[in-house]
Design a protein that fits this description.
The structure is a homodimer of 599-residue chains.
Chain A (H helix, E strand, L loop, with lengths): L19 E7 L9 E8 L5 E5 L23 H7 L2 E3 L44 E3 L7 H6 L5 H10 L3 H9 L3 E2 L14 E2 L5 E6 L8 H13 L4 E4 L6 H10 L5 E3 L1 H8 L9 H14 L3 E4 L21 H13 L4 H4 L1 H9 L4 E4 L14 H19 L4 E5 L8 H11 L5 E4 L11 H14 L4 E3 L12 H21 L5 H13 L3 H7 L3 H11 L20 H13 L2 H5 L2 H9 L12
Parallel strand pairs in A: 8-9, 8-15, 9-10, 10-11, 11-12, 12-13, 13-14, 14-15
Antiparallel strand pairs in A: 1-2, 2-3, 4-5, 6-7
């Protein structure tokens, strides 16, 4: 992308053109034909275009007909089958309790959902029938296993195109455990993406129904809505009824990796009584979800019995749901965590589906007062130990991080994580840099998120304005995603990620040259940018005007900067450019300046 | 403030009580009787209370009757007169062009406003008649002059109470030029505040009418609205008509220091033609505003002729309005800036009213690409030189900063400013950490603001969601102020400002103990916090319920944390506290946990 000259003829048109379209980039020369990486092509009014990373899936491609009842096309299926290391099998039968239903009704087959008080879409996902798949003879079929063996998979090629690096860099980062590429063999619908500090910072959005609200339809809609605005992965944190069926609908329609916390569903199966949880119930739930295609799972195996008392004197105790469930179990039985005890067996299961670990920080601080305390760091050391075990079993692994941390303690936090966990990708929630602003925790945490991502966090878990207060609606999901895309991109810039600044440069060029439509179309949220502009100057001509509502039409300061360029630094082309023509229109009244920021 | 025990009887009441009231803290023993520092006293349902810094002025005191037509009481008048170093004088006559009006009409007297197409309030401010005041024989009557002489003024005592430090610390910081206490002798209505890195980080909000929008009434309303939400100072950046009269209404009703950019009004007086500006017109405008009571003025004296060509190759040229006006003047005349040339005389004028300099960064970057470039740093070195001159003339001085700066260049920026300007207070706009999110620049800049304030910025100039797009309305002003209060408080925490964490601790205690009303009342924005909670669980009993919409009523995790505390760490009082009683209500269904953050 090059610097854009002002006022080519295209700029003079008042006609509103479509601002961008979905494009596809092929793999490198000699790559497979079915490797097409989606991008967002923004058309500028000067005839140039800007290519941006795109997470929105086939939904934004007008040439693809999507139908939530059918699900997305299984793009990766031939790659998975082609490897020949997996096999289909009958799978675990779906039971009423998978959906939180107690009564037994005549059901069966893998894809049958709950038949209780479902709202919205059908109880059973009506898409094409499928059998689950896993590694032959329980072998590891993970991207980590391939990378360690020196193999570059199509998925690795795909993300190499997406990230504009060589496939070998992708393989190396995965092999070293510094990056994960979450792709369950049972989720062939996704467009592969990679999470690691060497790559673009990623953003996760949480969705999920609860006991009191939300229908399946709403959750599927929230997922596509979140990815439209840039969510790189989505976690389904449903806790109410119909968990299994909701997840099936979400997975079959999701172009991005889906994460879950299996412990939530396991707890539903024992009617919310933590002490009745067992390794068998948990394991069965993990297999159930792995067969559906969950790409990564949060596992709170670091909450050990001995650490629970460390939280007793805290200001806010244990605030992680998974953490408190495991702490309750440990307390009730006075035994070591069954997740910790069975971690090797669990790792073998995950490796055979290529489910990625997200090792949960069950003892993360829930307040500024509790940040970076003994409980948190004791758990982190255990996560480091588990990370080593997971990698030995070829399970891709990332590590979850806080929480609430004041700015001056953030660097210590991530530096310790990177050291203890051998640079495994850090996946952090915020962190929130103060406790005093409920209703604005997307901002309190967006600050911490940008900083920790600059210092190495690979993926940021978003926080919405409703954090601590209620369940996010559609608007909250969008606000959360946009805020976190800002944090992620600010970090990409600060890390000097190749190409990151081209986006900023293109938008700043458009701003300097009064190409308003280009500014809108390049914006992270074109709709709101256009709406805010139109609130003050709604008329269509204002979109090409060389002024704005800040200074009014009487004067022009970009004009002054243009004068300076002409006199001192501009090339002959610049002097002779169409700028002079445009400027004359406003010259009579004194050429007032567009001012991005009043001072 | 101490940690709050759970569930004293007061907590069980469902009755909605007023959440806070305006209180006043007297000066130390032996202090003057009229020194009463306003605070916000938040009443907790457990009978305790939390004292917070308050910027809202008499408007939130139900015992004070305010009337915008009368103005606020001149609290400091007796202090100013008592010093005996100032005198009243006739003052400069107000002219039609002060309000941007060309026709001459019969008018006169200091307080007559414009009589053109005023909208909203009257043309002439109807409050008590007053004469302007200045230092006898042009002497310096600034807080800096007093501090250098070792004198502790009532204003210094006042801010010492406000900041919870000794008056001597205040005096030292001012004398060293590390802090400013902006108090024009003609603005006796304000409640003194201090700006310096040793003190709480402050926030400025911009208001101001423009050629196309806003009435005087709206601007006065925006000012009180901004201070209600925590703005520590307000800049009136009006550029349209009725500048003089609007400012008069704002000043007479403002409890916080008012800043301006005199160049804006001077430009109006020459009908927007930068080249027609003269030192005489500028000086006259400064005196006009100083007589009205403007507390600090942005002066772009660092934009020197030689620096203008340095901006020619920039991506976004000069984006500061003041900077581009001065650059245009320098270019038109090919002469050194009249502000730079007359800086010593200007300083004498400011010192005689105690107007504080805010040395403007006219060459600040307007895009990521231009951050920390040669033009910016050349100007900064000149600001350092001017800072030394200003202090020699006893003028309090702060230095304005960027702008657009990616995260990894922020520290370099402030470190250089602190070095070159001998730790003079830095007053920064953001900085914005990316250019790609118009409509969310309160967030792109809130990130940079929090970081730069942690590293030493004394005051943050807010940015609203409308930045780059249009004029902020009331909602935008609130969003901007709240975002920046978050950044400022996050920085206070990171700097370890004494007492800053007590606020977070009180809110976290309330959260842990399910004291919902206390959470709301302690929040930076109680209204929105309550509204968001009620969206999901509107009924009044939910305000005292031991659960929330995130998990529903079936289970309790704070309960689990309480169990842990009881078993491992709690005192006997805690075990016997009312918690047990409350918890039993939910025990039958499994004691589910309140979870601030889903994982």
């Amino acid at each position: 992308m090059t610097t854009v000259d002002a006022h080519t003829p295209a700029n003079d048109s008042n006609e509103r053109k479509p601002g961008w379209h979905k494009g596809y980039v092929p793999g490198p020369e000699g790559s497979r034909a079915d490797l097409r990486v989606p991008v967002r092509q923004v058309h500028l009014t000067n005839g140039q275009h800007v290519t941006l990373y795109d997470t929105s899936g086939p939904y934004t491609d007008p040439t693809v007909e999507t139908d939530v009842r059918r699900g997305l096309a299984p793009l990766r299926e031939s790659w998975i089958i082609g490897r020949g290391d997996t096999e289909e099998y009958a799978g675990r039968p779906v039971r009423p309790e998978d959906d939180g239903l107690k009564h037994t009704s005549p059901r069966g087959g893998l894809l049958r959902g709950g038949d209780g008080d479902l709202r919205g879409l059908d109880a059973v996902f009506p898409g094409r029938p499928r059998q689950p798949r896993r590694g032959r003879d329980g072998r590891a079929v993970s991207q980590l296993a391939y990378a360690k063996r020196g193999e570059i998979s199509p998925e690795m090629e795909y993300v190499a195109v997406r990230e504009n690096v060589s496939p070998e860099v992708v393989r190396e980062e995965i092999a070293a455990g510094r990056a994960v590429l979450p792709v369950n063999v049972n989720h062939p619908e996704i467009e592969p993406m990679i999470i690691g500090k060497r790559f673009l910072v990623k953003v996760n959005a949480n969705i999920g129904n609860s006991a009191v609200t939300s229908s399946i339809e709403e959750e599927v809609d929230k997922m596509t809505w979140a990815t439209k605005w840039g969510a790189d992965t989505v976690m389904d944190l449903s806790t109410g009824r119909n968990i299994h069926t909701t997840r099936e609908w979400v997975l079959r329609n999701s172009p991005v990796p889906i994460g879950t916390v299996p412990l939530y569903q396991a707890l539903e199966k024992v009617d919310g009584r933590a002490e009745e949880l067992t390794w068998e119930i948990y394991k069965d739930t993990v297999i159930e979800q792995a067969e559906q295609g969950v790409d990564y799972m949060t596992v709170h195996a670091g909450v050990r019995l001995a650490y629970v008392p460390l939280t007793a004197r805290r200001k806010t105790g244990i605030v992680s749901r998974g953490g408190s469930i495991m702490a309750a179990w440990c307390l009730a039985h006075h035994k070591e965590s069954f997740l910790y005890e069975n971690f090797e067996e669990l790792s073998d299961i995950l490796a055979s589906y290529d489910v990625t670990y997200s090792l949960g920080d069950g003892l993360r601080p829930g307040s500024i007062a509790d940040a970076n305390d003994e409980a948190q760091f004791a758990e982190l050391r255990t996560l480091g130990e588990l990370n080593t075990i997971a990698k030995r079993h070829d399970v891709q692994t990332m590590i979850e991080g806080p929480g609430h941390v004041p700015m001056h303690k953030i660097k210590e936090n991530i530096d310790l994580q990177q050291e203890i966990c051998e640079e495994a990708p850090f996946y952090t929630l915020g962190p929130l840099t103060t406790d005093v602003a409920p209703a604005y925790d997307h901002i309190t945490s967006g600050i911490g998120a940008a900083m920790i991502a600059w210092w190495g966090t690979a993926m940021l878990c978003y926080v919405t304005p409703k954090e601590h207060l209620g369940l996010p609606n559609r608007d909250d999901v969008k606000t959360g995603v946009i805020t976190y895309k800002i944090a992620a991109h600010a970090a990409d810039l600060a890390k000097g990620h190749p190409g990151a600044q081209e986006w900023d440069d293109a938008l700043s060029d458009a701003r300097f040259e009064f190409r308003w439509e280009d500014q809108f179309n390049l914006a992270l949220d074109p709709d709101t940018a256009r709406e805010f502009h139109d609130e003050t100057l709604p008329a269509e001509p204002a979109k090409t005007a060389h002024f704005c509502s800040m200074c009014g039409p009487k004067f022009c300061s970009m004009k002054i900067s243009q004068d300076i360029r002409r006199e001192h630094g501009g090339s002959q082309e610049e002097i002779e450019s169409g700028m002079a023509e445009k400027s004359r229109e406003f010259a009579a009244s004194g050429n007032r300046v567009y001012l991005p920021i009043a001072d």
